[in-house]
Structures are given as C-alpha cells and as structure tokens.
Amino acid sequence: MKLVILGAPGAGKGTIAKLLSAVDGSVQISTGDILRGAIESGSEWGRQAQAYMSRGELAPDALIMEVMEARLQQPDCENGFLLDGFPRTIPQAQALHQLFDKLGITLDLALNIEVPRDVVLERLTTRRTCENPECQAIYNIKSKPPAREGVCDKCGSAVVQRDDETEAAINRRLQTYTEKTAPLIGFYRQRGLLLTTPSTSSEEVVAAVTGRLGSAH
Ligand code: AMP
Questions:
Q1: CA atoms of 188 and 169, how far apart (whole Å)
Q2: Is there a contact between 147 and 139 (Cβ–Cβ < 8 Å)?
Q3: 3-class DSSP state for residue 113?
Q4: What span, in angstroms and rounded, lies between the C-alpha atoms of 68 and 114?
Q5: Best substitution site from 36, 53, 127, 170 to test ligand 1's pocket, by max atoms within 8 Å of Cβ?
Q6: How far, in Å, from the CA of 86 to the mean position of ligand 1?
Q7: Which helix (H) or strand (E) holds 166?
Q8: Which site in 53, 140, 175, 195 is 20 to 30 Å from 160, CA atoms measured?
Q9: What sign results for the dihedral spanned by CA atoms 31, 115, 146, 161?
C-alpha cells in the first residue's frame, strides 16, 4: 500500500505505520527517524535539521524534499510505503505529488489519525526513547516502562526523554501542527484520498485502512 499518515505529534502514527507494515510488507518511512539518524551520524542533513528539531519547529521544506526524493527512489519503496510524519506542510505535499507524477507513483490513501489534545500532551510528556539510533525502542513511564528504570529492555542503552518532548517543545510542536500540517487534511479531502479515524484502538485504525483499500481495489 502507498499511504501518507497524518496526525498530530503523539497521535500514534509510528505505531500504526508499524502495524500496517506487518500487513503487506510496505516500508515505514519516518522523516523524524531519518533526521535523528542523520544527526547521530554527523551528516550535513543532520547538521542543518538539528536546531529546528530541538526547538520543536519544522525543518525547511527544501531540506526535507531533498531527503525524501532520495528515500522514495530506494528499491524497498517499490512494494509500497507508509509515510510517517511527511508531508507536514502544503508546499511539501505539492512537491511530493509532483515527485509522484515524475516517478509514476499513485497514492492510495491519506490516513488522518485524530486524537484529543490532552491525550497527546499526556502521551508525549511521559514518552521515553532508547538513545541507541539502531534501536530507538519507545517506552512510556506510566503505561510501558522498561524493566529496569532508564535502561532499554532490547539493547541495554539509556532510555531518555527526547529534546523535543519537553513540555515547552511539545506545545510548540502542537501549535506548528495546527498552523502548518492540519491544512493537509483539506488538501487530501479535495483529492478524494482522505480517511479519518479516531486513534482509540490501533487495531480499528488498521481495519479501517485495509477495509477501505480492499473495497477500492
Ligand atoms: P517526528 O518524529 O515525526 O515527530 O519529527 C520530529 C521532528 O523532526 C519534528 O518536530 C521536525 O522538527 C522534524 N521533522 C520531521 N518530519 C518533518 C517534515 N516532514 N518536515 C519538517 N520537519 C520535520
């Protein structure tokens, strides 16, 4: 399947992308993970993105498009992809659809995961991530803590709060979402590609997507 996944930070885009990836092997592509990997490896992309990310702001559209133009042409995208956290602005969406036209790709669906603001705030401020870039396992200090406090169950590295998951950065990210990303809902609705679901149950979101794709094909 070829999907764009929309939703506020903390809506569960990554979790849903992983579940959908298990359905048919479509590759999950998270721009946030790519940028964090680029920072870790000291690459030029990472150097350019770092300051924006730690402030909870979006990285520049031109930088993101350069990263994604390269990523979408990797062979593993041929069998389908789940774009998690991209596009995040109208200019990115326009550039993405030009790129799709150039590459002969047809998008199946834009999935919009809806979640109330208080739920997002609670989820993100209690979220912790394994700092090992190869692992990046996600924990929650309330609902899913690691067995040993601060230590990753999977690889033994430190489990930390991301710079952009402090309360101040989260408030900025939510504001950025409302201003820059929420308009994409209208963009995809106009194109007849939008599917909106509440994020209450991951299984129900997955069933809504497979149901819609099944009936469309
Ligand atoms: P995420 O893990 O998707 O929440 O992304 C973390 C941060 O990476 C965001 O707050 C942005 O600073 C940056 N980022 C990720 N994806 C994009 C994108 N499509 N456009 C601009 N910035 C992005």
A1: 28
A2: no
A3: strand
A4: 25
A5: 53
A6: 8
A7: none
A8: 175
A9: positive
C-alpha gyration radius of the chain: 17
Burial string for 129-168 (b: 16+ CB within 10 Å, else e) reads bbbbeebbbebeeeeeebeeeeebeeeebebeebebbeee
Count of residues making up the chain: 217
What are the structure tokens assigned to 209, written together? Answer: 């997507």
Cα 32 to averaged position of ligand 1 atoms, centre (Å): 5
Q: Counting atoms of ligand 1 from 1, which one is nearest the CA of 31?
A: 16
CA distances from 44 to 8, 32, 47, 49, 109 (A): 27, 15, 5, 9, 32
